[in-house]
Structure prediction request, 419 residues.
Amino acid sequence: MHGMRPHLLCIGGDDHALRIPFLLALRERGLNVSAAGTGDAGAFANAAIDYHPYAMSRFLAPRTDRAAIAALSRLIGELRPTIIQCFDTKPDILVPFAAHAAGGVPVVSTITGLGWLYSSRSPLALGLRPVFTLLQRKASRLTTELVFQNRDDEVFFARHRLLGTAGHRVIPGSGIDIARFDRAVADGPSPTALRAELALGEVPVVVTVARLTRQKGIATLLAAAAIVHRQVPDVRFLLIGPRENEGPLAIGKAEIDRHRPYVRALGVRADVPSLLRMADVFAFPTELREGVPRALMEACVAGLPCVTTDMPGCTDVIDHGTSGLVVPARSPARLAQAILQLLRDRTTARNYAARASAHVRKELNLDVTVERYAALYEEILCRLGGAARLWPAYAPLPPAKLAARSGAAASGPSVSSSG
Prediction:
């Protein structure tokens, strides 16, 4: 039983554990929260969040998709949540159908970027796009509110008649838990210890945190790394993120190995904040329409100078020439030039990093994001006539306190990016 407080069921995919700070913050504001996802349950158990695993493929799998809708519909029928929040491309399509089949529960779908389907020029993506467009159009008719993480995606949905009958608004990003990130840096290994562990010495280090796929720009980064290496022979590029489970989209191991020893794939790491602190430059060469990339925001919070591409979402974090460098996607030469510029002009790089860190800490932090979502949920419940009855414990932070917390985050010490 979830008492008289509203019950939020948050549904996502295999990286749903990234939403745990968001859910804990909502719980502090008076909601009962539970989650459903396709990833490991351990992190949710550690956070004492009720978690329900289900099966879903990130790729084209009609049979699995039908089974996922049926499983989610059963789950919604059993839990009877007050409101459902879903994230990511597939859940944003499947969950509204499941909620409708379960008898109708308000659904908030957050569009976390338009991803491979609307970014890739491959024949497969072009062939699938009309199918997913039709499904999204139908899902939007069953969705209470569409939340976009950047204005570009909202405009795209409007232009392609994907908004349906849903309300819609922009809430930038997913919110970075600044205090948690800074604590992870403080508690993690020092830059000296990490450099010793990875046998890096004092060499310049460029780090990337992403799924190791072509769509994330890893092939472009490898080509840029070769260019940078010719001019700075001791440079090292570290690739952090999954590869083996990325299916046909993954960059092959042999392709990465051709760039040894100046490129190393470290796989998934638990000490990403410390690795960011240790590095000199962060490169995020995505070719996808992102929401607002979490990895890019975390690099900014770590005080690391960043270069990224001119894709939606990325330019919401980095303002070219003010808080970092923005280059065209799929341009190894331009990417290499930007990396070299940040490595050689350390004063400008530090200034970029400081501005980017202040922006993310003030505008894209978890407190601000959670307040916006909490206000949206309350608005929906009011619209349905149940807020006064269902949300007696809701108490948004007073504006003065929220401003003070945001200001303290913005003015807090940023981590040196000098390595």
Q: What stands out?
A: The chain is about 45% helix and 15% strand. Residues 388-419 have pLDDT under 50 and may be disordered.
